[in-house]
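Open question from group meeting: does this chain pack into something compact, or does most of it stay loose? Before anyone orders reagents, we agreed to write out a predicted structure and look at it together. Recording both the input and the output here so the notebook holds the full record.
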Amino acid sequence: MKRLLLCGILGVLGMAPAMFGDVIDYLLNVNGTNYCDSGSGTGCSNTGLPSGPGDSSTLNTSFDTTGNGGTPYGLGSVNLTFNPGAAGSYNVGLWLFEELTPNSGYDEYGATGGSLGTGESWQIDAPDYDIGGDPNTSAAGTIIANTEANTLSDTNDVPGGVDSITGVCPSPNCNDYTSLALSQDFTLATNQEELLSFTVSTTAPTSGFYLEQIDPGTITGVPATYYYSVTAKTVSVCTSGCSTVPEPRSWIPLALFASVLVLALAIRRRSATA
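Structure tokens returned:
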């Protein structure tokens, strides 16, 4: 039986910098089934995130209209347990569109760090749909479609380096609206499941591969960087005789043995003192 548990999504991880990312949009692809925000520009058929026993969501997709990012949206982890109930090859990917500084989200860029793991793919790009006032007219905009199709390009289409604050910037090196996507391929045998964790943090991972979203701080004077990474672990699923705690009936012989042993020791002690 297919089972998907969404244990916790983008919960706050603690202290955040003076500017906070607003989650503007997202798309979660669970082996071809896509979930997105109800107000998303992605157009997927399933609005919202998976729901059911054990599922939960703290992802806040609201936009900070004050432009100062007063709430730490977008920091935390998306934890998934994927159990299709059959052996095979599968994939889970998550695209996130955040603005580290909402009133200058078009002046951000991306970078990568670490070493790419087995089965991982990634992309950094502007969203596929038009965003009013975007000064960078050269943005590729294929990241959503590639997340949906599990064809992330492993490329950074917003390498940045050229300020977009001053006006129109039709160059591939211009800062721009920046979004990040990570995807994980994995193979499961019979009675196996995959534990995945997509994490956004202000601290770089100490190992593995990660994406960076960077705001140079042109507006606020305080640069900010978010780090996005994924971990995956294949585990066995117990199907029978799983409990390591003896059933109540199994304690009966043990209790009788203990009673006999105590009685024997008492008799021996009394005989020794007679």
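Observations to bring back to the group:
The radius of gyration is 26 Å.
The chain has two domains: 3-236, 243-274.
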